[in-house]
Amino acid sequence: MQRLVSGIKPTGELTLGNYIGAIKQFVKLQNELKDTELFIFIADLHAITTPQDKTILKKRVREIAMFYIACGLDPEKVNLFVQSEVVEHALLGYIMESTAYIGEMERMIQFKEKKRNQVDGVRTSLLTYPALMAADILLYDANLVPVGEDQIQHLELTRLLAERFNTQYGETFIVPEGYVTKVGAKIKNLQDPTKKMSKSDALSEKSYILLSDDLNQIKNKIKSAVTDSDTQIKFDEKHKPGISNLLTIYSAITDEPIKDIENRYIDSTYATFKNDLAQIVSDHIGQIQSNYQALLKSNTLDDILDKGRDKASLYAKRKMSKVMARLGLQRKK
């Protein structure tokens, strides 16, 4: 039995881009990897590398957990839990800090980028969070870690720290492999299709679609999406980024090949295509919202997160007992 571990940072409302690019991929993994245990956690400790409003953070942790379930994550197939409720994450995070070198942390590309964009003082945890990320993975003896382009460097550091610890203290950690998922489509800004869809970077609400948006609002955002002066419904990211983005959304939601969609609308207008897509997207998100409301009314979220926490804690405590013994930090053993 293999084990796959991944985290979700609760620092923003979920967009259609998040759903297509990440959440939908997790749902596929749970159904495709039959011989693999999945540990998916809400990474609230990673969220506090930058200032957070405690009320909003607490609310968002619950909302994101519910949306992931509403989108199809099955608590019977996935151990879903909140990172901070398994204290061994922080403990092993410190031990990984004590295994890593400052230069290794300073070389992290994401740290350099976030430091550049940080208006106020840069918190120490922004520098050291790759050590916590390594702990998140190594704590559960993960064989597989889903990685995108922006996470490859962090996985390489995790592998390095695991190997270094094993060399210094004896075989303790499994050295994880990156698991490259079937590429989740990258959804672009509806008003500027040269940029990714993101609420934080958007100048207009019409630029993005939230999973919590009113359904009529979703339709209007699709219908007002930027296209081009040409009238041909054809995928061409370089010359027709707007219509290409809409074709990508259509394909990702329906699981139809883009070529088939192009052929269906070969003699249609942009207006017809947008109207159809608006209905498809609103119907799909409408079902997610319906699932979300049913979960909200059932009051089962805490039971799901408690069950996930308890199972994760069982693994984590067992692993930390071994790690502490390797380091000579257990007084009575």
What descriptive keywords fit this protein?
333 residues; mainly alpha; Rossmann fold; Tyrosyl-Transfer RNA Synthetase; 2 domains; three-stranded parallel beta sheet; two-stranded parallel sheet; 13 helices; 54% helix; elongated
3D structure, described in words:
- The protein has 13 helices and five strands.
- It is mainly α and about 325 residues long.
- The protein folds into two domains: about 1-185 and about 300-325, HUPs (Rossmann fold, 3-Layer(aba) Sandwich); about 205-295, Tyrosyl-Transfer RNA Synthetase.
- Strand 1, helix 1 and strand 2 (about 35-40) form a beta-alpha-beta unit.
- The model has no long low-confidence stretch (mean pLDDT about 90).
Summed up:
This protein is mainly alpha-helical and 333 residues long. Helices cover 54% and strands 8% of the residues.
Write the layout of secondary structure elements.
Blueprint: E1 2-8, H1 16-32, E2 36-42, H2 44-47, H3 54-70, E3 78-82, H4 88-97, H5 102-106, H6 109-117, H7 124-138, E4 144-146, H8 152-169, E5 177-179, H9 215-223, H10 241-254, H11 258-264, H12 270-298, H13 301-327
Parallel strand pairs: 1-2, 2-3, 4-5
